[in-house]
Amino acid sequence: MGLLLSGLLAEPGLAEKVALDPSQWGDEAGEKCVSCHAKASSGLAAQWRESAHHAAGVNCLDCHRAERSDPDAMVHEGQVIATIVSPKDCGRCHQKEYEEQQGSVHAEAFTLIEARLPALADHVGGPVMRAASCDQCHGSRVRVQGDGRLDPATWPNSGIGRINPDGSKGSCSACHGRHGFSKAQAREPDACVRCHSGPDSPDKEIFEASKHGMLYVAHRHQMNLEAPEWIAGRDYTAAPTCVTCHMGAAGKLPSTHDVGMRNVWSLNSPVSKRQFLVVFEDGAKLELPEDAEIPKRGAELTRLDGTVGRVKTVAPPERRRQAMSMVCLECHAKGFTEGFMNQFDAVVELFNAKFAHPARTIMDRLYAAELLTPTPFDEPIEFTYWELWHDEGARARHGASMMSPNHAWWEGMYVVGRNFYARFLPEARAIAGEHAAELVEAVISKVGAHQWLNDPQQTSAILGFAGEGGR
Question: What CA–CA distances, in Å, run from 392 to 168, 275, 420?
Fold first, then answer.
């Protein structure tokens, strides 16, 4: 664990400066690309001319060049190139960032849903919906046609976990839009909202409703977004952005392209669990829930993609929390930070105990009794359950994590409770029929937070009740 911990606490600084070797970069043949594309794709050429790449003498061919043996290699105007510039290509210069990104939860975004969520898009919608929706954020598995051209069913795509023809995962241009590759753009909250918005990941809406979002809007001109270095508490103090908390340098905490490194909870799952972070010898990472068997250093473990890796170190949830708190401490006192974290944890634990565990137990019992078909999303209760944790449950948990009272309650836990009591339980009881007592009520009766259902004396003035005697 020591290696990982020392890395998290290393002195922050710039991404390593790229030393340009004239024999490798600034290929004269690349000038022909520019002269042609300045006419055929003038906007593209203009973006490149305004970029740090142009200032450093890096041109089109330096990034798009390929080996003839590459799966997606093609001959274009006498040059062997590839359409996709993958993270592996970027890693020729930006090695540190590439290694961090390849081991991140972003790089696994496609793998995480490949065998799980597409049932919604494929069946409830239609197969073409995956390319237009899920894959645009999570990434596609890009297929190559025989002549090196990319299959239009899988390309264009800049999903954060895209599986590239060279075997690398992800897309740097998901955040650093081509062909400008701006640091300032990636530091803006708007860089994240293309995917982190909407019912299941409402981070845009939550950030904008929070005190942090209010400060950012009011003081954006003080954010120093174009700065070469960008260390919270030193280079800017006006407000945080998504990058500040999840990736940015702060105090002695270095920046990272592993965007999930500092997260403790799984907030987009049916039941949230604290997560251990397993780091493998080759740099890959895997999150394991707190109730899983945690491997020891040197152990071999199967990863999400089916490959086996040797464990280098394991970071416990407490260490990950400490890393996130280091960012908070640049602007907040220790007691303030600890108090907020306790409030956040309490909301997640409430969701788990009162709604998540009972709902999942009831669904498991209905499936086991063969009262539900094994086909997903062919019965109303499956949509109710899905939305309970995936939509409103996510809003409540994310709202608490990012300080939006409205999303934590009215758009979050209140909707969870309303749909649990007014939709999920009635639907489950109707399905269970004469077995409702053992399949549904036996679950609810064990949870103290639901006992108000059996206490007619617990009245509420908000509904107009005045206690004994009625309205």
Answer: 34, 22, 11
